Amino acid sequence: MKTTVLAFVAALLLSSNATAAIKIDGRQAQNMDDVMSLGVIYINHNFATEQEAEVAIQDDADQHNAKYYHSILMREPGSNGNMRVSADIYR
Question: What domains does the chain contain, in order, with CATH numbers?
Answer without folding.
Answer: 20-90 (3.30.1660.10)
